[in-house]
């Protein structure tokens, strides 16, 4: 982000003849997601954002304080979606690991469940703006910033930490062992490859839908079982 975007925003100005309420705010957020995904933060202009949203230019300052405030709100919405969809599962898995002694099959089932949840979140057409969100993720990875760090922290908290605990149990290694971390990244990578924004084109899918989401989940879940269901030496 540009240094000017990090400065304290000026006092908010109420836009003239501006549609008010959640509808205008929602339109700005939807337009921002599209433009930030396409152009990145620095190249997306507030004038283009306002035109795409169908609002007056001062509306961005009124609702979000600044372009940076708008960008952060877009990221916060994605974090909220991830927390609401995967957070409860992550909490349940960690609770089960702390209070029970799951079998190997149960550990693998939990690992499969959380990775399949990630796939469901990323590929679900029922969640508005799926393709744009995928492009936005790709843009953030190419141009990381403080907002990306917040999204990454959410991913670590909701996905990486429970996966690390599960893989540690499955391998008999400490959860922070480098070999465990490498396996976690490999396992998450199985999902990430399908979550890339260009995968639908490679597969010839114009739409995805619940049936195809389930096919992807099953394909990845079966590979996780192949990797972890058999007994493994702690030196692997």
Q: Key features?
A:
0% strand, 2 domains, elongated, Tetracycline Repressor, domain 2, 236 residues, 11 helices, Arc Repressor Mutant, subunit A, mainly alpha, disordered N terminus
Structural class: mainly alpha
CATH level-1 class of the largest domain: Mainly Alpha
CATH topology of the largest domain: Tetracycline Repressor, domain 2
Number of domains: 2
Largest sheet: none
Structure description:
This protein is mainly α and 236 residues long. It folds into two domains: 11-65, Arc Repressor Mutant, subunit A, CATH 1.10.10; 76-228, Tetracycline Repressor, domain 2. It has helices spanning 3-6, 22-43, 46-53, 58-64, 67-99, 104-123, 130-142, 146-171, 178-195, 199-203, 209-228. The chain is elongated and about 60 Å long. Residues 2-19 have low confidence and may be disordered.
């Amino acid at each position: 982000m540009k240094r000017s975007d990090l400065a304290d925003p000026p006092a908010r100005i109420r836009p003239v003849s501006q549609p008010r309420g959640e509808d205008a705010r929602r339109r700005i957020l939807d337009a921002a997601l599209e433009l930030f995904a396409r152009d990145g933060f620095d190249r997306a202009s507030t004038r283009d954002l306002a035109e795409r949203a169908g609002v007056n230019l001062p509306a961005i300052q009124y609702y979000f304080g600044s372009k940076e405030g708008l960008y952060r709100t877009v990221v916060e919405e994605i974090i909220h979606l991830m927390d609401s969809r995967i957070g409860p599962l992550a909490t349940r898995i960690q609770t089960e690991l702390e209070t029970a002694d799951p079998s190997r099959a149960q550990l693998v089932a939990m690992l499969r469940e959380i990775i399949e949840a990630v796939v469901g979140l990323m590929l679900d057409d029922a969640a508005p703006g799926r393709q744009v969100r995928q492009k936005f993720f790709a843009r953030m990875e190419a141009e990381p910033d403080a907002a990306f760090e917040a999204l990454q922290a959410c991913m670590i908290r909701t996905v990486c930490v429970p996966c690390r605990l599960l893989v540690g149990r499955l391998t008999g290694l400490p959860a922070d062992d480098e070999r465990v971390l490498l396996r976690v990244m490999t396992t998450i990578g199985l999902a990430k490859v399908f979550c890339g924004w260009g995968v639908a084109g490679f597969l010839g899918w114009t739409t995805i839908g619940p049936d195809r989401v389930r096919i992807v989940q099953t394909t990845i879940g079966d590979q996780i079982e192949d990797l972890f269901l058999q007994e493994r030496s702690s030196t692997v």
